[in-house]
Design goal:
single chain; mainly alpha; two-stranded antiparallel ribbon; 5 helices; elongated
Length: 83
Amino acid sequence: MNGARQPVTIINYQLLIINYKFPMRSYSKKELACLAGVSCRTFSRWITLHRTELSAMGVSPTAHILPPKAVKYLCDIYSIDVE
């Protein structure tokens, strides 16, 4: 070793942080309502507008916990930030 330091590429590290996406997890309807800033009743009304899409994802109308796929769909539709 000659004592020379290796250059550190900070740009790649910053791009890695910017492009990193946290995995989507299951949320309860109450949690999503709080994140959206609305009451649980209002959020339930919003969900009824998308009942056919959610039922295709395997979500029953009486489900309390929404799977990650349904959470992502609702977050995209209503611009809910879960990060």
